[in-house]
From TrEMBL:
Topology with respect to the bilayer: Multi-pass membrane protein
Keyword Transmembrane helix: yes
Residue span(s) of domain RCK C-terminal: 328-421
A Pfam cross-reference name: CitMHS
Protein's recorded name: SLC13 family permease
Origin species: Roseobacter sinensis
Subcellular location(s) per record: Membrane
PANTHER family: BASIC AMINO ACID ANTIPORTER YFCC-RELATED
Protein keywords: Membrane, Repeat, Transmembrane, Transmembrane helix, Transport
Domain of life per record: Bacteria
TM region positions: 6-26, 33-52, 64-82, 148-173, 193-216, 438-455, 461-478, 485-503, 523-543, 550-576, 608-626
Length: 627
């Protein structure tokens, strides 16, 4: 191998790499701004005569139109479309039903599912589709999003190693082997790998990732904030206790067939036990804020707001069945769909002098009146430390009263347009779900996936077909589509692409590879393979995994032939190790989850450092065992 000399341009590129890593780690500026700064700096330096070939300035911003970046934009829109129909909430409900509400049970289900999906589609696509699911699970379990997104993201990357179509490097590998065969004698020709040749290695890596976070997650995952923490809906229990002194929570009970309360009204039960029935379910149908004059029919389920000790007494005396957690009503009373809000009755309102019963409040407004706050006094159905319960439904409204209600966000959005009330709660999800569009959303999602799996069209075009289809059919409007895109992620990735190209085109990557391989000269075969794996890992952090694979596979094959090793295994080592990208958020999946979870670069270094070592050990061990 002819020695490569270090040039001025290579030195500048190495300096820019060091500067980029410094900005990422120190976080002096936001990481997306740091990437943009480096891109601009690269373009300006290219104007100097001695550095004219550092970068092609006319193509400096091509990253914004790259296949990877456009694919990410499209998959974010597709994910938002599926979420808009309520489909992702249903997926979250299924996961919660089987996984409970603990980290150690939820993480394996989410991560394992995403890992399997990413073995057949681009890992960033799998991660983007599950982002709204994990967000809703975070809200409903009150587990911080930062505790769930990193395991999901890492396993999406690991899942790409489970099949030969799971990641771009593995897709390219067989073509690169065929090219390398042209320079090899017939007895050293390499056979192409089959679709599932790498599956044992990939499965081992996914299982390792899941076990890593289940066992060590409490120490390596950042605490972060809970999803939705800034809204009044984060915890109904805490909100009512802190603001109004109401020590309540929502409980789900069953009324068995033949129960004595059958034929009574909800109002009768509410007044007998001083609880508040805010939901009912019968024969598969659910009612949010049902009319209190409704007669009870068994068997049915009720969602009840009340104090724990009162609910326990009610169950013990009345023969009701208390469920350990919300089951039938889990989706209806999730903070993503409903919560506590406050509204004031202004002077001149037509409801002054009337009570909730007169207005048939629940039927008219789709909300449950929990309390009335008037002159420093809070009146509610529920017993407090200061006073006995009050039948707030029979208290006439006064101008200036603050009404505490439990409502769906959709109903609350309608109330903001009602002149009889002034809604003072502003920080709530003002989104309009479109469940009737679920058929269109699924159709265009399936079309996108089918185009990816069964055609040779570019990934970005396949995904944009689905995204545009959802917009044209009204699943999303164009403003929703723009809002669904994390532009910080887009600019982070697009701005790093020119730096990766500079590393490759100036010969810096080849120079680095040669220096490392020179150091490994004469080492045992297993250490050469490990060195190749470490080199591929380092390269994929600073340039595209495709570029790293194209550059290193021919080098790996040459080293294997010279050392008497299996060139196909050395080439596979490169293709798999380019998925070992956990240390810094330069991988598309890591960039995607960084913003929503509020991760810092140091969080990736802390969690990803150990994961990087585990990846190297497990992948090398399994490749040598399997092959």
């Amino acid at each position: 191998m002819e020695p490569i000399s270090l040039t001025l341009e290579m030195s500048v590129v190495l300096g820019l790499l060091a500067f980029t890593v410094f900005l990422f780690v120190s976080e002096i500026v936001r990481i997306d701004l740091a990437a943009i700064m480096v891109m601009v700096l690269l373009g300006l330096l290219s104007q100097l005569p001695a550095l004219s070939s550092l970068a092609d300035v006319s193509r400096l911003f091509d990253g914004l139109a790259s296949n990877a970046v456009v694919s990410i934009i499209a998959v974010m829109i597709i994910g938002a479309g599926l979420d808009k129909t309520g489909l992702m909430s249903k997926v979250a409900s299924v996961i919660l039903k089987h996984g409970g509400k603990t980290e150690t049970r939820i993480i394996p289900i989410i991560s394992g599912t995403v890992g399997v999906i990413s073995s057949f589609m681009q890992n960033v696509g799998a991660a983007a589709l599950f982002l709204p699911v994990v967000s809703r699970i975070s809200v409903r379990t009150e587990l911080p999003l930062s505790r769930l997104l990193m395991p999901m993201g890492f396993c999406a990357i690991l899942g790409g190693t489970m099949t030969m179509v799971g990641s771009s490097p593995l897709i390219l590998l067989n073509d690169l082997l065929l090219s390398a065969n042209e320079a090899l004698p017939e007895d050293q020709q390499m056979a192409p790998f089959g679709l599932f040749s790498v599956t044992p290695v990939g499965i081992s890596l996914v299982i390792t990732g899941i076990l890593y976070f289940v066992v060590f997650g409490r120490w390596v995952l950042p605490a972060g904030r809970k999803e939705g923490e800034a809204t009044s809906a984060t915890s109904l229990k805490d909100y009512l206790k802190n603001i109004y002194g109401l020590k309540t929570d929502i409980f789900e009970i069953s009324v068995p067939e033949g129960h004595p309360c059958v034929g009574e009204t909800f109002d009768d039960v509410m007044q007998r036990y001083h609880v508040y029935i805010i939901g009912s379910a019968y024969r598969g149908k659910r009612w949010f804020a049902p009319v209190i004059q409704t007669q009870i029919t068994a068997p049915c389920r009720l969602a009840i707001l009340g104090r724990k000790k009162v609910i326990d007494q009610m169950v013990a005396e009345g023969g009701y069945v208390l469920h350990p957690q919300l089951d039938v009503f889990a989706e209806d009373y999730a903070p993503t769909k409903s919560g506590v809000a406050e509204m004031v009755i202004p002077p001149g309102s037509s409801v002054i002098g009337k009570c909730a019963h007169d207005l048939v409040f629940r039927k008219t407004y789709g909300a449950s009146l929990l309390a009335i706050h008037r002159d420093e006094e809070t009146m509610s159905y529920v017993e407090t430390d200061d006073h006995a319960p009050t039948a707030v439904g029979e208290v006439p409204f006064h101008a200036g009263d603050t009404l505490v209600i439990h409502s769906t966000w959709e109903a609350l959005t309608r109330l903001t347009r009602d002149r009889d009330f002034v809604v003072v709660t502003t920080n709530f999800p003002q989104e309009e779900l479109r469940p009737k569009k679920v058929g269109w959303a699924l159709l265009f999602f399936i079309i996108s996936i089918s185009l990816i799996l069964f055609t040779d069209l570019r990934l970005s075009l396949c995904l944009l077909t689905g995204a545009v289809g959802m917009i044209l059919t009204g699943v999303l409007d164009i403003d929703d589509a723009y809002a669904a895109v994390s532009w910080s992620t887009v600019f982070l990735l697009a701005s790093l692409i020119p730096l990766g190209q500079a590393v490759q085109t100036t010969g810096t990557a080849e120079w680095i590879a040669q220096q490392i391989l020179t150091l490994l000269n004469g080492w045992p075969l297993w250490s050469l393979q490990a060195g190749i794996a470490v080199l591929a890992t380092a390269f994929t952090l600073i340039m595209s995994n495709v570029g790293a694979t194209v550059l290193l596979v021919p080098l790996a094959v040459s080293i294997a032939v010279a050392a008497g090793g299996d060139p196909a295994i050395f080439a596979l080592t490169v293709a798999i190790s380019t998925s070992n990208s956990f240390l810094i958020p330069t991988h598309q999946v890591n960039a995607l989850i960084m913003g929503p979870a509020g991760y810092k670069v140091t969080d990736f270094m802390k969690s990803g450092g150990i994961m990087t070592i585990l990846f190297l050990v497990v992948s090398l061990l399994m490749m040598n065992v399997v092959f």
